[in-house]
Amino acid sequence: MSVLKIEGLRASVGDREILQGVDLEVQSGETHAVMGPNGSGKSTLAHVLMGRPGYEVLGGSVTIDAVELLGLPVDERARAGLFLTFQYPIEVPGVPVVDALREALIAAGRSTADLIEHMAGEAGRLGFAPDLLLRPMNVDLSGGEKKRNETLQLALLHPRFAVLDELDSGLDVDALRQVAHRVEAARQESDPPLGVIAITHYRRLLDELPPDVVHVMSGGRIVRSGGPELATELEETGYAGYRPALDSEPTPLPGEGDSFLGKFSL
Ligand code: ADP
Ligand code: MG
User: Fold this and answer.
1) Quick one: fold of 3-250?
2) Which of 4, 8, 78, 173 could form a disulfide with 60 if both were Cys (CB 3.0 to 4.6 A apart)?
3) Which residue from 9, 10, 13 has its CB within 8 A of the most atoms of ligand 1, so it is best to mutate?
4) Most informative mutation of 10, 15, 18 for ligand 1 (most atoms within 8 A of CB)
5) For ligand 1, is residue 43 a contact (CB within 6 Å)?
6) Domain ranges in the chain?
7) 221 C-alpha to center of ligand 2: Å?
8) Ligand 1 atom, smallest distance to 247 CA
9) Ligand at shortest distance from the CA of 253
10) What is the rounded distance in angstroms from the CA atom of residue 128 to the CA atom of residue 125?
11) pLDDT one-digit tens code per residue, 128-183
């Protein structure tokens, strides 16, 4: 069993402090939902955990089984067992999914025997057309296909902990069910069982991926935690009563979509 422990995490972008002391502890096999208004820092948390360049860590710690991740490059965080599915999956011209996964498995010292068969099996499970596996990563794919592709990578790489940044956005009901079931299967069947941080606005994902704990993020902090009933309450009340977002409206980020491939180095 493993533990992902986030303590007092503070981080800035430019001269703005976005994460203002985040505490969160996830054990293998647990699902923690992170909800909260737009601009409250949820994606920033995901990116800082994974080590995306451009964020300055001001304090705190992030460990998996007492190994400090902050300061490690992205590929070493991936090797330590962390995986991120992007809110906006990137397109990587010239790099087929199968090549990226093969390199990731080799970097992790894992077998690539029967990789094509495994990928085809996972594609079938996820309703992802197998010929897309040979095409350049995410190029010209629909939003739903990109999210299935992210989930397929998760399934094949067997991380210890996965951060799902709005895995449900852009998915129709059937696709939502398929990706959520695949993540839920990893949570139940992997050894150790997958621990999940599911960033979402909607309870419908959590109906398929039942959370042990629901957290509300606001103003760069976790301001409330509760059981699954908190997601229902939030759906009814919205985020009225919580601190407003750090900004009135989040703007598209410069560099969003930049190449960020470390996660394939597992
Ligand atoms: P959420 O995912 O909760 O909607 P984000 O983490 O994307 O929120 O954004 C939190 C705040 O940080 C927003 O005000 C956003 O504009 C700002 N922000 C995030 N990343 C950057 C960046 N790279 N450059 C400038 N501002 C950023
Ligand atoms: Mg976000």
Assistant:
1) Rossmann fold (3.40.50)
2) 8
3) 13
4) 18
5) yes
6) 3-250
7) 14
8) 14
9) 1
10) 8
11) 998 888 899 999 999 999 999 999 999 999 999 999 999 999 898 999 999 999 99
Alpha-carbon span 259 to 253, nearest angstrom: 14
Separation of CA 193 and ligand 2 centre (Å): 26
Question: Which ligand has the minimum distance to the alpha carbon of residue 35?
Answer: 1
Structure tokens at 115: 């990789």
Coil, helix or strand for 9?
A: strand
Q: For the segment 3-41, what is each residue's pLDDT rounded down to a tens digit?
A: 999 999 999 999 999 999 999 999 999 999 999 999 999
C-beta 37 within 6 A of ligand 1: no
Q: In what order do the strands lie in the sheet with 221-226?
A: 82-85, 161-165, 195-199, 31-35, 213-218, 221-226
* Selection from 10, 2, 27, 3 nearest residue 222 by Cα: 10
Distance CA 16, CA 56 (A): 10
Q: How many residues does the structure list for the chain?
A: 266
β-strand partners of 57: 11
Ligand 1 atom closest to Cα of residue 256: 23
Residue closest via CA to ligand 1's atom 16 equals 250
Backbone angles phi, psi at 9, to 5 degrees: -75, 125
pTM for the full model? 0.90
SS3 194: coil
